[in-house]
Design brief:
single chain; alpha+beta; 64 residues; 25% helix; three-stranded antiparallel β-sheet; 2 helices; 22% strand
């Protein structure tokens, strides 16, 4: 990701991610020294905003 504001997601520039069909996802944020692996089987995965909620909760839990 180059610009989290433009992408409209919580995160930092330089992170990279992948999202699978059934809701699985991972992202790596080198700036925060963070790796997240999310494994679910939910089709359609858009039925619930779990990935977005996970990102929000994860970044909200970080302490400087």
């Amino acid at each position: 990701m180059q610009d989290p504001t433009r992408a409209q997601v919580v995160g930092t520039p330089g992170e990279y991610a992948w999202g699978g069909l059934a809701g699985t996802a991972f992202w790596v944020d080198p700036a925060e020294d963070l790796i997240v692996i999310f494994m679910i089987q939910l089709v359609p995965s858009s039925a619930y905003p779990l990935r977005r909620e996970l990102r929000t909760l994860t970044y909200g839990a970080l302490i400087d």
